[in-house]
Amino acid sequence: MKIAALIVAAGRGLRAGGGTPKQWRPLAGARVIDHAVSAFRAAGIDDIHLVLHPDDTYEISGVTITHGAATRDGSVRNGLEAMATDPPDLVLIHDAARPLVSSALIARVVAALEEVEAAAPAVAVTDALWRGENGQVSGTESRDNLWRAQTPQGFRFDAILAAHRAATGPAADDVAVARAAGLAVRIVDGEEDNLKITTPGDFARAEKLMERQMDVRLGNGYDVHRFGEGDHVVLCGVRVPHGRGLQGHSDADVGMHAVTDAIYGALAEGDIGRHFPPSDPQWKGAASEIFLAHACTLAAERGYAISNIDVTLVCERPKIGPHAADMTTEMARIMQLDPTRVSVKATTSERLGFTGREEGIAAIATATLIK
Ligand SMILES: Nc1ccn([C@@H]2O[C@H](COP(=O)(O)OP(=O)(O)OP(=O)(O)O)[C@@H](O)[C@H]2O)c(=O)n1
Ligand SMILES: C[C@](O)(CO)[C@H](O)COP(=O)(O)O
Asked: Which residues bind 4-CDP-2-C-methyl-D-erythritol 2-phosphate (predicted)?
């Protein structure tokens, strides 16, 4: 079974306020949309399609992006049409504004789709229901058989595409579209925590829930390369003219190696040598960008977002200050991170030790990963 996720993120989040649309706002160390994408990856769903507003961009690898429409159902339709050229068997349609969706909930929807063509999570209404007018209770309603709908709402792809193509009016969600087309939709257990960020107060609620559930990982990396012949060094992806070069099997980018090892360390995935053995000639002279991009992909596959990295280069010369901004930009590009999450700094060792004697350069790095 080919299963894909379609995450809609083209809304403007007017009810949430705050200027920036809610899916792009920070929540517990990453953006709301990052959490939603990571949740599907953590659940083992790698075929991820995002629907974005034409004004927005999202630098993330391994996802397909389509532009949305003025309404949620229009955005879903655009996403489904874009997927139709290489359709999955099943599609899970999810709000980017629901960052707390769990792997267990996603698995329940998928399991139901093995038996039926449409299934969606919901939570039974447990509070009494009133009608109100002018601040007064004007009546009560039965709560029997009432459910609060959540996402991801899952469907056989062909069936929901046909239902959206046949839809005539506005719809609250994809279950409404499916039912209008005659599909039977099974209710699966939703989760209270799977809230949709809608109003300003929902950010604080979601943050609290995330803190309770969050898996935060720290990793450290340390690397040293000795000086040899040469007229430049490559540090954090930037070529810096220097009277000597750094020796190593690859391009000897000691800073990038330390960061890469910090990410592998946070994942308990060994170090660069384990993934790219120095005994393998194909890595001779390789650009270290390959190693760093691999570590970032591995983190994403495990459902972790990189929250920040911090690297310190230890050398007397070359002077790092004039190049630090370029190094930050380059590292952020490779890691697909906002540059404010990337710190590159340097220190001397007061002329002490091998770095003080200018025999080589050392680098130490820390990475924080969040799921
Ligand atoms: N034209 C739209 C409207 C909504 N959505 C997405 O549908 C999900 C649920 O919608 P909602 O919570 O209503 O989001 P907004 O429309 O952004 O919020 P608001 O109504 O407060 O402006 C969100 O992930 C939102 O980005 C979308 O892709 N395209
Ligand atoms: C799809 C949905 O999340 C189901 O609860 C919801 O209907 C979408 O948000 P909206 O606030 O109704 O636009």
From this structure: 223-225, 249-250, 271-273, 347-350, 354, 357
Residue nearest to atom 12 of ligand 2 (CA): 172
Is 67 annotated for ligand binding? no
Mean pLDDT along residues 153-169 = 97
Tell me the C-alpha distance between 320 and 272, whole Å: 24
309 sits in which H/E element: strand 305-314
The ipTM value here is 0.96
Please provide the average confidence, as pLDDT, over all residues in the chain: 95
Taking residues 307-334, report their average pLDDT: 97
Ligand 2 close to Cβ of residue 22 (< 6 A): no
Domain spanning 216-370, CATH architecture = 2-Layer Sandwich (3.30)
Pairing of strands 30-31, 26-27: antiparallel
125 alpha carbon – ligand 2 mean position (Å): 16
By most ligand atoms within 8 Å of CB, the mutation choice from 14, 151, 160 for ligand 2 is 151
pLDDT of residue 244: 97
CATH 3.90.550.10 occupies which residues in the chain? 3-213
**Tens digit of each residue's pLDDT (9 = 90 or more) over 225-268:** 999 999 999 999 999 999 999 999 889 999 999 999 999 999 99
Dist. CA 360–CA 254, nearest whole Å? 10
Q: Identify the pLDDT of residue 160.
A: 98
3-state secondary structure of 87: coil
Within the chain, all domains assigned CATH 3.30.1330.50 are found at 216-370
Collapse the DSSP code of 33 into the 3-class scheme (helix H, G, I; strand E, B; otherwise coil) and give the result: helix
Cα three-residue angle 182-10-304, rounded to 5 degrees: 100
Distance 47 CA to ligand 2 centre (A): 23
The token pair at 304 is 């972790």
- Is the CB of residue 311 less than 8 Å from the CB of residue 328? no
Residue 39 Cα to ligand 2 midpoint, Å, equals 19
pLDDT tens for 165-216 read: 999 988 999 999 999 999 999 999 999 999 999 999 999 999 999 888 778 9
pTM check: above 0.80: no
- Name the residue at shortest CA distance from atom 5 of ligand 1: 11
CATH class of 3-213: alpha beta
